[in-house]
């Protein structure tokens, strides 16, 4: 058990190092950091001096070590475009993205699991069929089109909901929240629906197919033979066994939700990390790009660690073995 | 006794009404398509940046919405009768910075010196300046290299910041990356202007509150209590935000939405010309182009090629379809507001594809050639659409043009790099000094020292340079105007740039706001009144 | 998840059974699938034959006439009198032709990137399954990471890096290639997982040992046996990924990092059309969006059916 957790931790560390190396290579080799920082008017002497100060003449291994050390302390340098500390930018944008992503994931999970269970239990009912067909349309609808559609209907024609931004936010310490004001909550509705929709359809389809598979398993047949009520079988036995893979996937998808926010944030001009990243890509603002990459990797490592632990808690057989093998 | 009492009562009444009016919160949300690049008042000579900064920082003089020069931080100015190379400015008494310190001549001298630093984007306004000095606390003298009768025109663009504040916060120079420090002035501000910076998140919003201690308070309405600038890049979202009441004022109304907005009962749209011309620039200076398919030769270096391209542009069609009438086609890169503009210069060559093809063939390109056009997609009205249309028109005479359209800061970077990294580009030029000299020295002068910084064409002509330099020293105005006319005749004939049109602007706002279009596209929101007009 | 035993169950001769009557029957009995397939085939054919069908060449800017701009669908243009079936955009570009050419770009990028990720994914899956040990752990760990990084992020990163590395003059010509690589690199992990699973199962079979015993190299034998087994699942993944890739390309173009305005893909067309959400020129946004959704939907429906048909347990 402890060994398993330690191994997960080690793997997470290796992943972080690998991603850090990619981020470092981007910083070091994409564009010329010195030119990007000083601009074209700088003198040769200025450039040489900055190159020296930034340690760009040192061996690459040393530079990488320094980069990792800085990153571990949250120091990602200065944004080429905004001239501000990248860490400050990220902290400023983080609350917007986290609130959006967590609410979307919650929405997708609750609605997705309910609809999936329903579609599995009433697998031949017309509502279930309708839901399944709609879910396919959902998979085929690009996120940005959903966003544009919602804006057109609810912001332009009906004028019920705001079309962009977070509305009024309240500061709790350094955390800005939109959950405590009316405009803040209104502003959340469309982005949450847009971002959650794809995840919703994925979770729903997954729940349905897992549940159908579980319902065919022997232990369910035995349960039926023993005369246990159908409701109880469905919700006690089938659902519980369905949830193991669903929680795994949903957990891993949380990272996905955060990064998928890129598109949603752009459409709704949501002042989060995704919008920051898209702007950074357009401006080739490498410090921001590499910091964002590390951030997403960090979220991924943490969520998959948590998922691994939940997995162990839910499935005693895995407490000794390697979960990858059991899959 | 009695009248005096009445006057006092009236004054008190007036004061209490005023107090009532000021107590009421009057926020205004202002949407624009792009954000200011920085708050540093001398870092970027760019429209949206100036648009925001002018509300926080002020200059010695200002332009009203029609372009008229008015006193601001300077109450009066004159050229010293004993020395025509020295301008003297008397400063306004009682002006306070947002931090409470008083404006003195030291701050003005400091700000001008800061604006003349190599990294300043405003040094081009002050090329003729030799030295700025204070005579006393409220008097500043600007000594020019030769007599410059029009220097005062340039002062409306040089914003004044507090010397003590800049020194304390390490913002005397531009950003010092070496110490991984942020330049304080990029995100913080301390001006004398009608609004005080509260918070700024680049690309998200900038919040300002009314400066209740504004020195000019009685003279301007200054009714807005809180001013928020929100950049909204997407056209549709920006208009939606106005229609749904999320913002009160949209600075960049997309031309396609003007008609719909006009038909809305509670929305007012004001349109008018901007002091800005949109045009293409070509790399005429290089021996060979990187982006073309012609080996060892630069087709743009041949005047006939440039004339052919100029003739291929169907300006009326661009005006009608791309701009929906919101532009004035032109044949010169000078808006009509500018000293030196004439109707004859403004005339554009008629579209003539046959003649254009003949000219190309004469120049040795009967089958045309190919090149790449760089275009911004978030700066000027329908900039990407203009480029697309022009690419089609150039294609019709056999010049195959690849189009690369991207965000303004990348685009401008290509142009400003030395040497420029583009052979063919779209740019728009506004003329805050209302004089041709500004266009000449930024766009036509060779790229040397502080001049020609936006001249990415590689055009360099010693005679032209000499004539441009003479403009800032010529005291005899008719003689100076004659030089300007001579320069324009020569330069228009050279066809270094392909002019397209003078841009028109539309502002949309919720009633009863009535914000007039500002010819410099720097709306003066201290003038806004909620009482209507 | 217990899918591996299922695979072994239906492992032998999958390719042979692919066309057997069960499948054909299941296909015929699902009218939705038939409609979707016909639609998908029609859209793909129309896109391939774009130069033959399209009345105009929207990629040739020289052929555009600004005066044709903003023509309403099926109505003669006020100035030129020309009729455009689905209207024209602000440049006078025929929307119908632009959609045909645009879907061609979208499908080309989609297909090429699917092929790219398929080759990488199958290759790495084979290596992982066969070599095992650290190599396997490394490859599968990378696949895990890749799967959890959404495609759009990977694609944006690749795009950003390419933008920094490729000189500005070449960027436009390279856009198509960069898109293919960006989207391809973001979708290979699923193939790798499937192929690895199948390879693991095959590796322990007697014939592999037998082949080794008689001195044959095990590699060719493996490939010969593994590939047919994974053909079904890989085909399903590829089909669904094609729809995903088309959407991804549209999203990138929508974000402004995709195809240039002079060679619009469906996503670029939607980006332009979005400007006219208010001004009444609805056709510029609606038709390309509709085609994009129909294209993705019909491919998805087909892929969905294919998955169910190849996995009898679910039907």
Chain-averaged pLDDT of chain A = 81
Query: Could you say which structural class the secondary elements and strand pairing of chain C correspond to?
Result: mainly alpha
Number of domains of chain A: 1
In total, the number of strands of chain A is: 2
Q: How helical, in percent, are the residues of chain C?
A: over 70%
| Bulk shape of chain C | elongated
Largest sheet descriptor of chain C: none
Termini distance of chain C?
A: 18 Å
Strand content of chain A: under 5%
Which range does the strand content of chain C fall in?
under 5%
How do the SSEs of chain A run, as a string of H and E?
HHHHHHHEEHHHHHH
Query: Which CATH architecture of chain A would you pick?
Result: Orthogonal Bundle
Oligomer: heterotrimer
- CATH topology call of chain A: MetI-like fold
Query: Could you report the average pLDDT of chain C, rounded to the nearest whole number?
Result: 82
Number of DSSP helices of chain A? 13
The strands making up the biggest β-sheet of chain A line up spatially as 1-2
Could you characterize the architecture of this molecule?
The complex is a heterotrimer of chains A (327), B (533) and C (315). With 327 residues, chain A is an all-alpha fold. Chain A has 13 helices and two strands, in the order αααααααββαααααα. Chain A has one domain: MetI-like fold. A two-stranded antiparallel ribbon of chain A has the order 1-2. Chain A is globular. The relative contact order of chain A is 0.14. Chain B is of the alpha+beta class and 533 residues long. Chain B has two domains: 183 residues, Dipeptide-binding Protein, Domain 1 (Dipeptide-binding Protein, domain 1); 231 residues, Dipeptide-binding Protein, domain 3. Chain B has 16 helices and 19 strands. In chain B, strands 1, 10, 11, 12, 13, 14, 15, 18 and 19 form a nine-stranded mixed β-sheet that branches. Chain B starts with a helix and ends in a 23-residue tail after the last strand. The N terminus of chain C is likely disordered. Chains in contact: A-B, A-C, B-C.
């Amino acid at each position: 058990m402890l060994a398993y957790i330690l191994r997960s931790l080690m793997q997470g560390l290796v992943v972080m190092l690998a991603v850090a190396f990619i981020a470092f290579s981007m910083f070091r080799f994409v564009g010329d950091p010195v030119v990007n920082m000083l601009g074209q008017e700088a003198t040769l002497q200025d450039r040489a001096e900055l190159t020296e100060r930034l340690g760009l003449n040192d061996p690459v291994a040393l530079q990488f070590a320094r980069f990792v050390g800085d990153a571990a302390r949250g120091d990602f340098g200065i944004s080429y475009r905004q001239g501000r500390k990248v860490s400050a930018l990220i902290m400023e944008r983080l609350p917007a993205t986290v609130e959006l992503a967590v609410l979307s994931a919650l929405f997708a999970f609750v609605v997705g699991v309910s609809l999936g269970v329903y579609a599995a239990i009433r697998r031949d009912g017309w509502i279930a069929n309708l839901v399944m067909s709609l879910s396919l349309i959902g998979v085929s609808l690009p996120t940005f089109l959903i966003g544009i559609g919602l804006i057109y209907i609810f912001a332009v024609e009906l004028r019920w909901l705001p079309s962009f931004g977070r509305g009024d936010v309240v500061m709790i310490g350094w955390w800005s929240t939109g959950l405590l004001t009316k405009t803040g909550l209104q502003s959340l509705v469309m982005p949450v629906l847009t971002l959650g929709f794809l995840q919703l359809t994925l979770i729903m389809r997954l729940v349905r197919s897992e549940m159908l598979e579980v319902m065919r398993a022997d232990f369910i047949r035995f349960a039926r033979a023993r005369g246990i009520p159908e409701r109880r079988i469905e919700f006690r036995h089938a659902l519980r066994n369905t949830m193991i893979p669903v929680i795994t996937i949903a957990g891993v998808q949380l990272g996905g939700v955060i990064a998928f926010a890129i598109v949603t944030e752009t459409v709704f001009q949501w002042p989060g990390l995704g919008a920051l990243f898209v702007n950074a890509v357009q401006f080739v603002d490498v410090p921001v790009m590499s910091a964002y990459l590390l951030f997403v990797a960090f979220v991924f490592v943490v969520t998959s660690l948590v998922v691994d632990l939940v997995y162990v808690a839910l499935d005693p057989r895995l407490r000794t073995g390697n979960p990858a093998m059991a899959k | 006794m009695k009248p005096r009492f009445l006057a006092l009562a009236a004054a008190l009444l007036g004061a209490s009404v005023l107090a009532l009016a000021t107590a009421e919160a009057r926020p205004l949300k202002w949407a624009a398509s792009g954000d200011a690049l920085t708050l540093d008042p001398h870092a970027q000579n760019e429209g949206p940046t100036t648009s925001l900064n002018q509300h926080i920082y002020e200059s010695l003089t200002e332009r009203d919405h029609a372009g008229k020069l008015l006193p601001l931080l300077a109450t009066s100015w004159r050229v010293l009768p004993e020395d025509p190379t020295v301008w003297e400015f008397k400063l306004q008494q009682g002006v306070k910075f947002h931090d409470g310190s008083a404006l003195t001549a030291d701050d003005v001298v400091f700000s001008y010196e800061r604006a003349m630093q190599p990294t300043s984007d405003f040094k081009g306004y002050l090329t003729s300046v030799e030295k700025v000095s204070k005579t006393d606390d409220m008097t500043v003298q600007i000594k020019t290299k030769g007599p410059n009768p029009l220097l005062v025109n340039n002062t409306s663009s040089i914003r004044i910041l507090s010397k003590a504040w800049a020194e304390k916060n390490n913002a005397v120079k531009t950003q010092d990356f070496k110490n991984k420090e942020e330049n304080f002035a990029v995100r913080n501000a301390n001006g004398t202007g009608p609004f005080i910076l509260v918070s700024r998140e680049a690309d998200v919003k900038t919040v300002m509150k009314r400066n209740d201690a504004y020195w000019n308070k009685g003279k301007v309405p200054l009714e807005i209590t809180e001013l928020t600038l929100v950049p909204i890049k997407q056209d549709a979202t920006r208009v939606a935000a106005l229609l749904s009441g999320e913002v009160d004022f949209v600075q960049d109304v997309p031309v396609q939405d003007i008609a719909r907005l006009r038909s809305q009962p509670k929305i007012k749209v004001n349109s008018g010309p901007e002091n800005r011309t949109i045009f293409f620039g070509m790399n005429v200076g290089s021996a060979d182009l990187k982006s073309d398919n012609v080996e060892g030769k630069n087709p743009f270096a041949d005047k006939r090629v440039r004339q052919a391209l100029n003739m291929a542009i169907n300006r009326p069609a661009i005006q009608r379809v791309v701009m929906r009438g919101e532009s004035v086609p032109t044949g010169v890169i000078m808006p009509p507001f500018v000293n030196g503009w004439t109707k004859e210069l403004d005339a554009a060559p008629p579209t003539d594809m046959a003649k254009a093809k003949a000219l190309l063939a004469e120049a040795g390109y009967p089958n045309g050639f190919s090149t790449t056009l760089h275009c911004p997609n978030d700066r000027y009205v329908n900039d990407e659409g203009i480029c697309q249309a022009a690419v089609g028109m150039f294609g019709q005479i056999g010049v195959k043009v690849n189009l690369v359209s991207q965000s303004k800061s990348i685009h401008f970077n290509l142009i400003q790099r030395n040497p420029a990294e583009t052979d063919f580009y779209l740019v728009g030029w506004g003329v805050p000094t209302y004089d041709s000299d500004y266009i000449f020295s930024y766009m036509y002068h060779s790229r040397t020292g502080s001049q020609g910084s936006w001249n990415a064409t590689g055009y360099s002509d010693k005679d032209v340079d000499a004539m441009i330099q003479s403009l800032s020293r010529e005291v005899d105005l008719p003689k100076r105007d004659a030089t300007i006319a001579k320069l324009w005749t020569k330069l228009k004939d050279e066809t270094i740039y392909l002019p397209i049109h003078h841009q028109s602007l539309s502002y949309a706002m919720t009633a009863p706001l009535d914000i007039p279009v500002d010819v410099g596209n720097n709306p003066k929101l201290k003038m806004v009144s909620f009482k209507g007009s | 998840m217990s899918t591996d035993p299922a695979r072994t169950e239906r492992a032998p001769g999958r390719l042979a059974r692919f066309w057997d009557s069960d499948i054909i029957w299941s296909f015929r009995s699902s009218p939705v699938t038939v409609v979707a397939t016909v639609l998908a085939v029609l859209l793909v054919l129309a896109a391939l034959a774009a130069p033959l069908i399209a009345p105009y060449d929207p990629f040739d800017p020289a052929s555009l006439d600004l005066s044709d701009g903003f023509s309403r669908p099926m109505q003669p243009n006020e100035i030129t009198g020309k009729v455009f079936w689905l209207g024209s955009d602000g440049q006078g570009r025929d929307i119908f032709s632009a959609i045909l050419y645009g879907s061609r770009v979208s499908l080309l990028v989609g297909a090429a990137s699917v092929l790219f990720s398929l080759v990488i994914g199958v290759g790495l899956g084979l290596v992982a399954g066969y070599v095992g040990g650290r190599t396997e752990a490394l490859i599968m760990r990378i696949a895990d990471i890749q799967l959890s990084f959404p495609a759009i992020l990977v694609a944006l990163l690749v795009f950003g890096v390419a933008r920094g590395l490729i000189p500005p003059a070449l960027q436009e010509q390279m856009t198509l290639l960069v898109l293919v690589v960006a989207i391809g690199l973001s979708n290979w992990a699923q193939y790798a997982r499937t192929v690895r699973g199948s390879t693991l199962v095959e590796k322990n079979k007697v014939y592999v040992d037998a082949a080794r015993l008689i001195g044959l190299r095990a590699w060719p034998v493996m490939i010969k046996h593994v590939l047919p087994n994974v053909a079904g699942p890989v085909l399903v993944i590829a089909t669904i990924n094609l729809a995903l890739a088309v959407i991804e390309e549209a999203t990138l173009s929508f974000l402004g990092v995709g195809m240039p305005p002079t060679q619009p893909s469906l996503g670029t067309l939607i980006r332009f059309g979005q400007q006219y959400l208010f001004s009444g020129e609805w056709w510029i946004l609606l038709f390309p969006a509709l085609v994009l959704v129909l294209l993705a939907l019909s491919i998805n429906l087909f892929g969905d059916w294919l998955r169910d048909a190849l996995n009898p347990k679910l039907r």
